[in-house]
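_Per-residue structure_
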Amino acid sequence: MWNRCNKNKPCAVCGKFDWCTYTDDGAHRCMRIVNASKWQLIKVDSAGGNIYRGIGETSRRIGLPTPPALKPKVAWEHLCKKWVNRNKAWELANTLGVVYEGLAALMVGWSEMHKSYTFPMRDENAKIVGVRLRTKDNKKFSIKGSREGCFYPDPKHIEMPHEVFVVEGASDAAAILSIGGYAIGRSSATGCKQIIKSLVQGRRVIIIGDTDEVGMRGANDLASEIFEGCEQLQIVFPSGAKDARDWIRQGASLDEIKLRSKEGDWYAKEEQVSCRSKG
């Protein structure tokens, strides 16, 4: 059975105490680090979790431990509609430096029980499959029973256009929406590949990666996974900023981001190869 990491039991691989899990017999599921040194990578699961054991260790059970079965279905859609809170969304918009409409498009709300802002996570069919919480002191975690999904607008209200930006996190998605673009936010740097692959079929895609090591690797891994189904795919990393939201807060416009993307990594469907710019 998988146990959640916490402050008393942080992840043995990355040292963080959220997102990651472990089993009592020594397996560790890290959501951040791929190919960690001093650990043997057993597998990468469909949600982007990297399952490790110590070098030379084997499970005391047959096969790999599997996550526990999901609890009875949660009425996520009902909860998220109930939690929608215009005043709290305005409050968060001011904190993050995005416009209110960007958060409203993502159906951001507030859970008084959790004392946290709520961000619905959607699957490839736009169904809400879980909720990511963000506290006022910027701690992020998911409500128990959530499945990993992406942050993007309900297509019943905002139809997905031909050109789509893929970013890391809900706040980055809100930032792109704030300047007139359409964004899909990944719930982690390495997750949601299959969901995004399904969503962007036949579209022009611009991936904006975070500029840390995990973010850059995650952006390139995603590009390798999805480019065959895209009409065109480009990767851009923010200039002098850590992520898309920070870049936009520094004044980057949608046109500037598009122009910068043409100078970055791109994947040409017809050639089935990746090309990288110099410098």
About this structure: Residues 213-226 form the longest helix (14 residues). Confidence is low (pLDDT under 50) at residues 268-279. Helices lie at 76-83, 86-96, 100-105, 170-178, 193-199, 213-226, 244-249, 254-261.
